[in-house]
Amino acid sequence: MKRTTFPFLLIFSLFITFFSCSNTPKRSRKPVSTITIQPNKRNYVFGEKVSVNVKTKLKNGEIKNIKVYYKNQLLKESKELDFTVDGIEIQSLGINNFRVDAVKMDALNNTRTKSISAVSNVVPKKLTYKIIEKYPHSKTYYTEGLEFYNGFIYEGTGENGSSGIFKINLASGNADQSHLMKEKYFGEGITILNDKIYQLTYRSKKGFIYNLKNFVVIDSFQYKSAEGWGLTNDGTNLIMSDGTQFLTWLNPNDLSVIKKIEVANNKGIVTNLNELEYINGSIYANIYTTETIVQIEPETGKIISEVNMAGIINMYHNQKDRIDVMNGIAYDQNSNKIFVTGKLWPKLFEVEFIEKK
Protein backbone atom coordinates (compact mmCIF):
# COMPACT_ATOMS: atom_id res chain seq x y z
CA MET A 1 0.00 0.00 0.00
CA LYS A 2 2.73 2.46 0.87
CA ARG A 3 4.51 1.91 -2.48
CA THR A 4 1.43 2.61 -4.63
CA THR A 5 -0.08 5.55 -2.70
CA PHE A 6 2.42 8.26 -3.76
CA PRO A 7 2.19 7.68 -7.56
CA PHE A 8 -1.59 7.60 -7.32
CA LEU A 9 -1.72 10.89 -5.42
CA LEU A 10 0.71 12.52 -7.88
CA ILE A 11 -1.37 11.54 -10.91
CA PHE A 12 -4.56 12.67 -9.18
CA SER A 13 -3.01 16.10 -8.33
CA LEU A 14 -1.80 16.64 -11.90
CA PHE A 15 -5.28 15.76 -13.20
CA ILE A 16 -6.96 18.25 -10.87
CA THR A 17 -4.42 20.98 -11.76
CA PHE A 18 -4.91 20.46 -15.50
CA PHE A 19 -8.68 20.46 -15.17
CA SER A 20 -8.63 23.64 -13.08
CA CYS A 21 -6.29 25.50 -15.47
CA SER A 22 -8.28 24.50 -18.51
CA ASN A 23 -11.39 26.07 -16.97
CA THR A 24 -9.69 29.35 -15.85
CA PRO A 25 -10.74 32.30 -18.05
CA LYS A 26 -7.84 33.83 -20.01
CA ARG A 27 -6.66 37.14 -18.59
CA SER A 28 -7.31 40.14 -20.83
CA ARG A 29 -4.14 41.68 -22.26
CA LYS A 30 -3.40 45.35 -22.88
CA PRO A 31 -3.06 46.60 -26.45
CA VAL A 32 0.51 47.56 -27.36
CA SER A 33 1.16 50.38 -29.84
CA THR A 34 4.34 51.46 -31.59
CA ILE A 35 4.91 54.91 -33.09
CA THR A 36 7.18 55.49 -36.08
CA ILE A 37 8.08 58.96 -37.38
CA GLN A 38 9.07 59.46 -40.99
CA PRO A 39 11.49 60.68 -42.08
CA ASN A 40 13.63 59.09 -39.37
CA LYS A 41 16.35 61.54 -38.31
CA ARG A 42 18.15 62.86 -35.24
CA ASN A 43 17.01 66.49 -35.47
CA TYR A 44 13.99 67.88 -37.23
CA VAL A 45 13.54 71.48 -38.33
CA PHE A 46 10.85 73.89 -37.16
CA GLY A 47 8.08 73.93 -39.79
CA GLU A 48 9.10 70.58 -41.30
CA LYS A 49 6.29 68.10 -42.04
CA VAL A 50 6.40 64.49 -40.86
CA SER A 51 4.27 61.34 -41.02
CA VAL A 52 3.27 59.32 -37.98
CA ASN A 53 2.59 55.60 -38.33
CA VAL A 54 0.77 53.80 -35.51
CA LYS A 55 0.71 50.00 -35.24
CA THR A 56 -1.19 48.27 -32.44
CA LYS A 57 -0.99 44.61 -31.42
CA LEU A 58 -3.90 42.78 -29.76
CA LYS A 59 -3.46 39.52 -27.87
CA ASN A 60 -7.20 39.15 -27.42
CA GLY A 61 -10.43 41.10 -27.41
CA GLU A 62 -11.54 43.91 -29.70
CA ILE A 63 -10.26 47.46 -30.05
CA LYS A 64 -12.62 50.30 -29.15
CA ASN A 65 -10.50 53.20 -30.41
CA ILE A 66 -6.94 54.36 -30.97
CA LYS A 67 -6.17 58.07 -30.63
CA VAL A 68 -2.94 59.75 -31.68
CA TYR A 69 -1.99 63.17 -30.30
CA TYR A 70 0.66 65.78 -31.10
CA LYS A 71 1.36 68.29 -28.31
CA ASN A 72 -1.81 67.00 -26.60
CA GLN A 73 -3.92 67.88 -29.66
CA LEU A 74 -5.88 65.03 -31.24
CA LEU A 75 -4.65 64.19 -34.74
CA LYS A 76 -6.77 61.13 -35.50
CA GLU A 77 -9.09 58.59 -33.90
CA SER A 78 -9.37 55.15 -35.52
CA LYS A 79 -10.16 51.47 -34.97
CA GLU A 80 -7.52 50.41 -37.48
CA LEU A 81 -4.55 48.54 -36.02
CA ASP A 82 -2.20 50.04 -38.61
CA PHE A 83 -2.66 53.61 -39.87
CA THR A 84 -0.63 56.69 -40.80
CA VAL A 85 -1.22 60.41 -40.29
CA ASP A 86 0.58 62.51 -42.91
CA GLY A 87 1.59 66.17 -43.12
CA ILE A 88 2.06 67.00 -39.44
CA GLU A 89 3.96 70.28 -39.14
CA ILE A 90 6.56 70.56 -36.37
CA GLN A 91 5.41 73.58 -34.35
CA SER A 92 7.86 73.77 -31.44
CA LEU A 93 11.58 73.93 -30.87
CA GLY A 94 13.22 71.34 -28.65
CA ILE A 95 11.21 68.32 -27.54
CA ASN A 96 8.01 67.52 -29.47
CA ASN A 97 5.84 64.72 -28.04
CA PHE A 98 3.52 62.31 -29.84
CA ARG A 99 1.16 60.11 -27.80
CA VAL A 100 -1.04 57.15 -28.63
CA ASP A 101 -3.89 56.00 -26.39
CA ALA A 102 -5.32 52.57 -27.30
CA VAL A 103 -8.52 51.36 -25.59
CA LYS A 104 -10.18 47.94 -25.86
CA MET A 105 -13.91 47.21 -25.64
CA ASP A 106 -13.36 45.84 -22.13
CA ALA A 107 -11.90 49.29 -21.16
CA LEU A 108 -8.36 47.94 -20.79
CA ASN A 109 -6.03 50.58 -22.23
CA ASN A 110 -2.42 51.46 -22.84
CA THR A 111 -0.45 54.61 -23.66
CA ARG A 112 2.74 55.00 -25.66
CA THR A 113 4.76 58.17 -26.35
CA LYS A 114 7.42 59.16 -28.86
CA SER A 115 9.59 62.27 -28.65
CA ILE A 116 11.55 64.04 -31.37
CA SER A 117 13.79 67.11 -31.17
CA ALA A 118 13.49 70.15 -33.43
CA VAL A 119 15.98 72.93 -34.22
CA SER A 120 15.33 76.39 -35.63
CA ASN A 121 14.87 77.04 -39.33
CA VAL A 122 16.61 80.41 -38.93
CA VAL A 123 20.36 80.93 -39.20
CA PRO A 124 21.14 83.64 -36.60
CA LYS A 125 22.70 86.89 -37.79
CA LYS A 126 26.24 87.39 -36.52
CA LEU A 127 26.57 90.73 -34.75
CA THR A 128 29.23 92.56 -32.81
CA TYR A 129 29.16 95.81 -30.81
CA LYS A 130 30.29 99.40 -30.64
CA ILE A 131 30.87 101.19 -27.32
CA ILE A 132 28.94 104.46 -27.25
CA GLU A 133 29.63 105.55 -23.65
CA LYS A 134 31.23 104.25 -20.45
CA TYR A 135 29.93 104.67 -16.89
CA PRO A 136 31.31 103.70 -13.47
CA HIS A 137 30.04 100.44 -11.95
CA SER A 138 30.66 99.10 -8.47
CA LYS A 139 33.29 96.36 -8.33
CA THR A 140 31.41 94.87 -5.37
CA TYR A 141 28.19 94.17 -7.31
CA TYR A 142 27.89 90.53 -8.36
CA THR A 143 25.42 91.46 -11.09
CA GLU A 144 22.44 89.15 -11.56
CA GLY A 145 19.76 91.56 -12.78
CA LEU A 146 19.92 94.90 -14.56
CA GLU A 147 17.16 97.29 -15.61
CA PHE A 148 16.86 100.92 -16.70
CA TYR A 149 13.80 102.74 -15.36
CA ASN A 150 12.96 106.46 -15.24
CA GLY A 151 16.55 107.61 -15.59
CA PHE A 152 18.11 105.19 -13.11
CA ILE A 153 19.81 101.81 -13.31
CA TYR A 154 18.25 99.19 -11.04
CA GLU A 155 20.52 96.30 -10.20
CA GLY A 156 19.98 92.97 -8.47
CA THR A 157 23.07 91.33 -7.01
CA GLY A 158 24.00 87.82 -5.92
CA GLU A 159 26.26 85.90 -3.53
CA ASN A 160 25.12 85.03 -0.02
CA GLY A 161 25.63 87.92 2.36
CA SER A 162 25.82 90.63 -0.30
CA SER A 163 22.67 90.05 -2.34
CA GLY A 164 20.24 92.91 -2.74
CA ILE A 165 18.62 95.48 -5.02
CA PHE A 166 20.09 98.90 -5.76
CA LYS A 167 18.88 102.08 -7.43
CA ILE A 168 21.95 103.54 -9.09
CA ASN A 169 22.81 106.99 -10.41
CA LEU A 170 24.06 106.29 -13.91
CA ALA A 171 26.63 109.11 -14.03
CA SER A 172 28.26 108.43 -10.64
CA GLY A 173 27.68 104.69 -10.26
CA ASN A 174 26.59 105.30 -6.65
CA ALA A 175 23.50 103.76 -5.09
CA ASP A 176 20.78 106.25 -4.16
CA GLN A 177 18.69 103.49 -2.58
CA SER A 178 19.28 99.89 -1.56
CA HIS A 179 17.87 96.83 0.15
CA LEU A 180 19.96 93.88 1.31
CA MET A 181 18.53 90.37 1.45
CA LYS A 182 18.96 87.95 4.33
CA GLU A 183 22.26 86.12 4.19
CA LYS A 184 20.62 82.79 3.35
CA TYR A 185 19.38 84.16 0.01
CA PHE A 186 21.43 84.37 -3.18
CA GLY A 187 19.79 87.07 -5.27
CA GLU A 188 19.18 86.64 -9.00
CA GLY A 189 17.32 88.42 -11.81
CA ILE A 190 15.06 91.44 -11.33
CA THR A 191 12.45 93.28 -13.35
CA ILE A 192 10.11 96.25 -12.80
CA LEU A 193 6.42 96.00 -13.66
CA ASN A 194 3.40 97.98 -12.38
CA ASP A 195 5.45 99.92 -9.81
CA LYS A 196 6.85 96.73 -8.30
CA ILE A 197 10.28 95.14 -8.38
CA TYR A 198 10.29 91.36 -8.79
CA GLN A 199 13.42 89.46 -7.78
CA LEU A 200 14.35 85.77 -8.06
CA THR A 201 16.71 83.76 -5.86
CA TYR A 202 19.18 81.15 -7.01
CA ARG A 203 18.21 77.85 -5.36
CA SER A 204 15.63 78.82 -2.73
CA LYS A 205 12.75 78.50 -5.25
CA LYS A 206 11.50 81.77 -3.82
CA GLY A 207 11.02 85.23 -5.26
CA PHE A 208 10.35 88.59 -3.64
CA ILE A 209 8.17 91.54 -4.63
CA TYR A 210 9.19 95.05 -3.54
CA ASN A 211 7.48 98.41 -3.56
CA LEU A 212 9.36 100.36 -6.23
CA LYS A 213 9.39 103.61 -4.25
CA ASN A 214 10.78 102.44 -0.92
CA PHE A 215 12.08 98.89 -1.58
CA VAL A 216 9.84 97.47 1.13
CA VAL A 217 9.07 93.77 0.66
CA ILE A 218 5.33 93.54 -0.01
CA ASP A 219 5.06 89.88 -0.99
CA SER A 220 6.92 86.70 -1.89
CA PHE A 221 6.22 83.79 -4.22
CA GLN A 222 7.35 80.25 -4.97
CA TYR A 223 8.28 78.78 -8.34
CA LYS A 224 8.77 75.21 -9.49
CA SER A 225 12.04 75.64 -11.35
CA ALA A 226 15.01 74.20 -9.49
CA GLU A 227 16.88 77.47 -9.93
CA GLY A 228 16.08 81.12 -10.64
CA TRP A 229 18.35 83.01 -13.08
CA GLY A 230 17.11 85.85 -15.27
CA LEU A 231 13.92 87.91 -15.17
CA THR A 232 12.29 90.44 -17.50
CA ASN A 233 8.78 91.40 -18.65
CA ASP A 234 6.93 92.14 -21.87
CA GLY A 235 4.77 94.87 -20.34
CA THR A 236 2.12 92.36 -19.30
CA ASN A 237 3.77 89.21 -17.93
CA LEU A 238 7.03 88.23 -16.29
CA ILE A 239 9.53 86.14 -18.28
CA MET A 240 11.94 83.92 -16.34
CA SER A 241 15.03 81.85 -17.16
CA ASP A 242 16.34 79.03 -14.98
CA GLY A 243 19.71 78.13 -16.50
CA THR A 244 18.24 75.65 -18.98
CA GLN A 245 16.91 76.17 -22.51
CA PHE A 246 13.48 77.08 -21.15
CA LEU A 247 11.85 80.50 -20.82
CA THR A 248 8.74 80.65 -18.63
CA TRP A 249 5.99 83.28 -18.72
CA LEU A 250 4.46 84.08 -15.31
CA ASN A 251 1.30 85.95 -14.43
CA PRO A 252 2.49 88.90 -12.26
CA ASN A 253 -0.66 88.76 -10.13
CA ASP A 254 -0.59 85.16 -8.93
CA LEU A 255 2.76 84.01 -10.42
CA SER A 256 1.05 81.11 -12.21
CA VAL A 257 2.74 79.69 -15.30
CA ILE A 258 1.22 80.97 -18.53
CA LYS A 259 3.50 79.21 -21.01
CA LYS A 260 6.98 77.76 -21.52
CA ILE A 261 9.12 77.67 -24.65
CA GLU A 262 12.46 76.12 -25.50
CA VAL A 263 15.19 78.21 -27.11
CA ALA A 264 17.25 76.94 -30.03
CA ASN A 265 19.32 78.02 -32.99
CA ASN A 266 19.74 76.14 -36.26
CA LYS A 267 22.15 73.67 -34.65
CA GLY A 268 20.35 72.68 -31.45
CA ILE A 269 18.87 73.84 -28.17
CA VAL A 270 20.69 76.64 -26.32
CA THR A 271 21.06 76.35 -22.55
CA ASN A 272 22.51 78.60 -19.82
CA LEU A 273 20.11 81.44 -20.60
CA ASN A 274 20.90 83.96 -17.89
CA GLU A 275 20.09 87.67 -17.44
CA LEU A 276 17.21 88.79 -19.67
CA GLU A 277 15.96 92.02 -21.22
CA TYR A 278 12.89 92.65 -23.38
CA ILE A 279 13.78 95.05 -26.21
CA ASN A 280 11.42 96.05 -29.03
CA GLY A 281 9.53 92.77 -29.12
CA SER A 282 12.55 90.50 -28.65
CA ILE A 283 14.11 88.87 -25.61
CA TYR A 284 17.86 89.36 -25.20
CA ALA A 285 19.78 86.95 -22.99
CA ASN A 286 23.32 86.56 -21.71
CA ILE A 287 24.65 83.04 -22.26
CA TYR A 288 26.29 82.21 -18.94
CA THR A 289 30.11 81.83 -18.93
CA THR A 290 30.35 83.30 -22.44
CA GLU A 291 30.68 86.74 -24.01
CA THR A 292 27.62 86.12 -26.18
CA ILE A 293 24.22 87.79 -26.08
CA VAL A 294 21.40 86.18 -28.07
CA GLN A 295 18.24 87.75 -29.46
CA ILE A 296 15.24 85.44 -29.06
CA GLU A 297 11.86 85.48 -30.79
CA PRO A 298 9.32 85.26 -27.92
CA GLU A 299 6.65 83.43 -29.91
CA THR A 300 8.85 80.51 -30.94
CA GLY A 301 12.15 80.58 -29.05
CA LYS A 302 14.15 80.91 -32.27
CA ILE A 303 17.48 82.72 -31.89
CA ILE A 304 17.42 85.54 -34.43
CA SER A 305 20.88 86.96 -33.82
CA GLU A 306 24.02 86.27 -31.79
CA VAL A 307 26.09 89.21 -30.53
CA ASN A 308 29.77 88.55 -29.91
CA MET A 309 30.76 90.84 -27.02
CA ALA A 310 34.33 89.53 -26.74
CA GLY A 311 36.90 91.89 -25.24
CA ILE A 312 34.54 94.62 -24.07
CA ILE A 313 35.98 94.76 -20.53
CA ASN A 314 39.60 93.92 -21.36
CA MET A 315 41.09 97.42 -21.41
CA TYR A 316 38.84 98.82 -18.68
CA HIS A 317 39.89 96.82 -15.64
CA ASN A 318 42.97 96.24 -13.53
CA GLN A 319 44.59 92.84 -13.91
CA LYS A 320 44.43 92.54 -10.11
CA ASP A 321 40.68 93.16 -10.08
CA ARG A 322 38.45 90.22 -9.30
CA ILE A 323 36.05 90.19 -12.23
CA ASP A 324 33.60 87.53 -13.32
CA VAL A 325 31.56 86.83 -16.44
CA MET A 326 29.45 89.23 -18.49
CA ASN A 327 25.95 89.45 -17.09
CA GLY A 328 23.48 92.32 -17.31
CA ILE A 329 21.47 93.93 -20.12
CA ALA A 330 19.35 97.05 -19.63
CA TYR A 331 17.31 99.10 -22.09
CA ASP A 332 16.09 102.70 -22.07
CA GLN A 333 13.08 102.62 -24.39
CA ASN A 334 12.79 106.42 -24.44
CA SER A 335 16.26 106.96 -25.89
CA ASN A 336 16.67 103.48 -27.43
CA LYS A 337 19.90 102.96 -25.48
CA ILE A 338 21.26 99.54 -24.50
CA PHE A 339 23.51 99.06 -21.47
CA VAL A 340 25.61 96.01 -20.56
CA THR A 341 27.90 95.05 -17.69
CA GLY A 342 29.21 92.02 -15.81
CA LYS A 343 29.68 90.56 -12.38
CA LEU A 344 32.13 92.72 -10.37
CA TRP A 345 32.96 94.82 -13.42
CA PRO A 346 34.23 98.37 -12.81
CA LYS A 347 32.40 99.66 -15.89
CA LEU A 348 28.89 99.72 -17.33
CA PHE A 349 28.72 100.33 -21.09
CA GLU A 350 26.21 101.90 -23.41
CA VAL A 351 26.55 99.88 -26.61
CA GLU A 352 25.16 99.53 -30.09
CA PHE A 353 24.77 96.11 -31.69
CA ILE A 354 26.08 96.18 -35.27
CA GLU A 355 26.52 93.69 -38.07
CA LYS A 356 29.79 91.83 -38.12
CA LYS A 357 31.94 92.69 -41.15
Cα distance spanning the termini: 106 Å
Question: Which architecture of the largest domain does the CATH hierarchy give at level 2?
Answer: 6 Propeller
Count the E strands: 28
Report on the biggest sheet.
8 strands, mixed
Give the spatial strand order of the biggest sheet: 22-23-24-25-9-28-27-26
C-alpha Rg (nearest Å): 30 Å
Mean pLDDT: 93
CATH class of the largest domain: Mainly Beta
Helix count?
Answer: 1
Q: Helix/strand/pairing class, anyone?
A: mainly beta
What's the structural blueprint in terms of helices and strands?
Layout lengths: L1 H21 L9 E7 L4 E3 L3 E9 L5 E8 L2 E6 L3 E8 L4 E11 L4 E11 L5 E12 L6 E7 L2 E6 L6 E5 L6 E6 L6 E7 L2 E6 L4 E6 L5 E6 L8 E3 L4 E4 L4 E5 L6 E6 L10 E7 L2 E6 L4 E5 L6 E6 L17 E7 L4 E6 L4 E9 L2
Parallel strand pairs: 2-8, 9-25
Antiparallel strand pairs: 1-3, 3-6, 4-5, 4-7, 7-8, 9-28, 10-11, 11-12, 12-13, 14-15, 15-16, 16-17, 18-19, 19-20, 20-21, 22-23, 23-24, 24-25, 26-27, 27-28
Describe the protein in words:
This protein has 2 domains: 32-119, Immunoglobulins (Immunoglobulin-like, Sandwich), CATH 2.60.40.10; 125-355, TolB, C-terminal domain (Neuraminidase, 6 Propeller), CATH 2.120.10. 6% of the residues lie in helices and 53% in strands. It contains 1 helix and 28 strands. Strand 24 and strand 25 form a beta hairpin. Residues 1-12 and 14-24 have low confidence and may be disordered.
Pick out its properties:
mainly beta; 357 residues; eight-stranded mixed sheet; disordered N terminus
What is this entry, summarized?
The protein is mainly β.
